[in-house]
Amino acid sequence: MEQIDDRTLGEKVSDSVAKFGGSWSFIIIGFFLIILWVFANSLPLIFHWDAYPFVLLNLFLSLVAAFQAPFILMAQGRVERKQDAIYRALFREIKELVEVDLSIEHEVLESNKKMEKEIEELKAMIEKLKRSS
Predict the structure, then answer these.
(1) Left (φ > 0), alpha (ψ -120 to 50) or beta: where does 5 sit?
(2) How many other CB atoms sit within 10 Å of the CB of residue 11?
(3) C-alpha–C-alpha distance, residues 93 and 110, integer Å
(4) Between 72 and which of 18, 63, 115, 124 could a Cys-Cys bridge form, CB atoms 3.0 to 4.6 Å apart?
(5) Do the beta carbons of residue 56 and residue 49 sit within 8 Å?
């Protein structure tokens, strides 16, 4: 069964950013880029575009976090809404099954009452037959 993707462009972008931003690939790549940045700006052989305490690096990391966080929050909000709809549908289904189960149980109890009444009538008839013979 083919599933239709009805997400908007913004939702697709936020899902992609959240998927990559929350992955080990992002963490590893970011870690190595930071290490490379620090070494490149610490070695005396290379031009220092961001000397210690690495203000430009801090600014860049803050910008990444500032733009990445809303994308991740949007993606999480969409997932929560989707899960909520699934849970509501599941609870409705369970409620319907319980209602069907209760109606069947009621029918069984009614049948049992009728059978008990018939058994009592049969016992009375048997007693009557025993006394008459």
Answers:
(1) beta
(2) 15
(3) 26
(4) 18
(5) yes
| C-alpha–C-alpha distance, residues 28 and 30, integer Å | 5
Task: Write down the domain spans for the chain.
Answer: 10-132
Q: Say which residues have a Cβ less than 8 Å from residue 127's Cβ, sequence separation at least 6.
A: none
| Confidence tier at 1 by pLDDT (50, 70, 90) | low
First vs last Cα of the chain: how many Å apart? 74
Q: Which two tokens stand for residue 56?
A: 């430009």
Phi then psi for residue 48, to 5 deg, are: -95, 105
Judge whether residue 132 has pLDDT over 90.
no
pTM: 0.58
